[in-house]
Amino acid sequence: MKHRLFLAIPIPANFRQEVLKVSKVSEVSEAIRWVPYENYHITISFLGHVEEEKIPTIAQIGDEIAKRTPPFTLEFDKITLAPLRKSPRMIWALLQKNDAFTNLVREVEESLIKNNLSPKRTHSPTPHITLARLNKSIKYKVSSIKEFSLHSLYLPLYTNILISSFTLYESKLSPKGSLYIPLQHFHFHN
Predict the structure, then answer these.
(1) Cα separations (Å) of 27 from 33, 132, 182?
(2) Model pTM?
(3) For 26-46, what is each residue's pLDDT tens digit?
(4) What is the structure's pLDDT at 132?
(5) Cα separation of 151 and 154, whole Å?
(6) Residue by residue, what is the 3-state secondary structure of the chain?
């Protein structure tokens, strides 16, 4: 049996509360599908559909990397439309580029590739939290969303996130949206 898997950093509750406030001030809600609060995360690697027997290998990779990774901090940058170089399809809470995050992503992906578990990334990792997806049928409103997002969305209190673990998630798709089920947590050394 195959499972749709990804590795990601869970978002602390205090930061999620601040990010959740962003969706409460939306003036263009018909153009935006907000991601459920409980699904906020920072993706490290999307593995796609993986055979069940490969999950222990992924867990071992996660354990080994976490044991040699010290905690680090990611700093909030801004709310922006994404992808950054294409026609926008999402609204992100963008975090500042960070060497520790980039190194974690590269180490995870190199280990997954060695075990034939992940395609090679073709771009530099961008730490972000997907807050919303833009409805395809309403893309003509992107200019108003851009204006709105640049002037109305902000995170006033929690601008730093202490990263001390990451998680292996299973994503189950349904008509109501994705359900993310944590399968295993990997805690960094102190």
Answers:
(1) 13, 14, 33
(2) 0.87
(3) 555 667 788 888 899 999 999
(4) 85
(5) 8
(6) CEEEEEEEEECCHHHHHHHHHHHHCCCCHHHEEECCHHHCEEEEEEEEEEEHHHHHHHHHHHHHHHHCCCCEEEEEEEEEEECCCCCCCEEEEEECCCHHHHHHHHHHHHHHHHCCCCCCCCCCCCCEEEEEEECHHHHHHHHHHHHHHHHHCCCCCCCEEEECEEEEEEEEEECCEEEEEEEEEEECCC
Domain limits for position 13: 2-187
In this predicted structure, the answer to whether residue 186 has a pLDDT above a threshold of 90 is: yes
Where residue 70 sits, what CATH number does that domain have?
Answer: 3.90.1140.10
CA–CA dist 159, 44 (Å, integer)? 20
Q: What span, in angstroms and rounded, lies between the C-alpha atoms of 100 and 73? A: 8
pLDDT at 87: 76
Q: Look up residue 86 and give its two tokens.
A: 């294409």
> Number of structural domains, the chain?
1
Residue showing tokens 């990601």: 8
Question: 166: which 2 tokens?
Answer: 């990451």
**118 pLDDT more than 80:** no
CA 108, CA 152: separation in Å to the nearest integer?
36
User: pLDDT band at 147, cuts 50/70/90?
Assistant: very low
Tell me whether strands 2-10 and 32-34 are parallel, antiparallel or unpaired: unpaired
Tell me the average pLDDT of the chain.
Answer: 83
